[in-house]
Amino acid sequence: MNPRPLDFDDPDRLYTVTGGRSRVDDDALDLVTLVVAENDPAPGMQSEHVAILRLCRHEPVAVVELSSHLRLPVSVVKILLLDLRDTGHITVRHPTSATTVNHPADLETLKQVLVGLEAL
Amino acid sequence: MDSKPSDQPAAPGAGGAPAGPAGEVPLRRTVRDALKIVIVGGFGVGKTTMVGSVSEIRPLSTEEVMTEVGVGIDDVARVSDKRTTTVAFDFGRISLDDHRVLYLFGAPGQQRFWFIWDQLFSGSLGAVVMVDTRRLEDSFYPLDRLEHHRMPFVVAVNRFDGPGPQPSLERVRDALSLPGNVPLVDCDARLRESCKGVLITLVRHLATLHDPTALQEAAQ
To answer: Which residues lie below 8 Å from residue B128, measured CB to CB, with a gap of 6+?
Structure first.
């Protein structure tokens, strides 16, 4: 049931996987948004959707890791993930410490990161 | 020999079937917040090596594609007529505690890959600019873009084993026109302790930008 490796350079393949959709609201999912499967794959599901649900069945998996494991470009994976989210098959955990120019990481978070790094 | 060229990472999941996370170190179930640090630099400077030295998983790679037109394409039937650009990037991760995981991204520094930068830098804590003193000019564009993005960063000189004397940090700072408040450190991307030190330097720098007295307590 694993998806076949796809040729990144073949737009026709990517067109098929996404049903012809070419863009996604970039703010909806970050590269490091964590994905958790909420249920098992249903019969008749698109193979890429099945693969995603299996990959994040037990533990959360980041969008970028799903992209790497599925061998699909990040933007394509995001489209597939929004399908699954909208149908209740996955939930997502957005990065809560994400920074912006005007909102750098808070000091408490940075201190916790330091503790984690020093323990390496 | 010193590093895998980060612009051409090995094909992910080589061998056909994707390697599921089950075969890797999975994230903790309780993780709810993922943070990012971006390592940027020229071709072959050691970005992937650094990611691999500190990551709890072997560095993974993936790709992003961008059509020349970028956002706002409504007529998808025409997409295949557009020129598409593919950029590969590597990443790894470090679980910090039960709730936080830190992702490290190796970002290609070349100007033609500018489009991946917004996505990689969005929400990042900060950046490490990796420098090879034999090719300092490769660092000019990344440094310029980071300043443009107002993304805090530190500069790490990857000391390759090479013949001849290497320029001092002071000379590197001059050559890169780095402001005095930007930390500049030596590192060896192959060594875990060295890379860990670079990341700690970055996070301490971020804390100091936040509050110059932030870490005085910890230092005492």
So the answer is: B37, B38, B39, B40, B50, B153, B154, B155, B156, B198, B199, B202
